Amino acid sequence: IKDKRRSYVDFRTNPLVKVLVANPQSGGESQNLYEANNVVIYDIWGFSGGITIPQCIGRINRLGQTRTCFATLIGMKGSIDEKLIPAAIRGQNQARAALDWVEEYGGRG
Questions:
Q1: Percent of the chain whose pLDDT exceeds 70
Q2: CB neighbours (10 Å) of residue 37?
Q3: pLDDT of residue 87
Q4: Of 66, 64, 62, 45, nearest in space to 54 by CA
Q5: pTM of the full predicted structure?
Q6: What are phi and psi of 93, to 5 degrees?
Q7: Residues 6+ away with beta carbon under 8 Å from 43
Q8: Which residues contact 34 (CB under 8 A, 6 or more apart)?
C-alpha cells in the first residue's frame, strides 16, 4: 500500500470500504478499529516484537464497540501452526514453541 494512512482513514470513514488488510506490525498496536467487528489472522509468523494475537483482536474489541466481535485464526493442520497459534494466543514465545515442535516431531508434521 502506498499510503497506509489514507487506507486507514478510508476504512474508518468511507462506507464503500469494507475491508482493511494489515499485517500485525501495522495493525496490531496503537490502532482503534472499532468500526470493524471481524478480524482474520492469517500470518502467525508475523507476530513478533511483543505484538500478540490478543492485541490484534483488541483493535476491534475496545471502548466504543457496539457489535459482537469475531476473530478467526487461519493455520495449516499438521504444521508448526498447531504449536504457534496456541502459544501466540497465550502470549508465549513463538520461538520456544517452534523449537518444541522441532524437538517433538523432528520437523515433520
A1: 67
A2: 15
A3: 73
A4: 62
A5: 0.65
A6: -70, 120
A7: 23, 24
A8: 60, 61, 62, 63, 64, 65
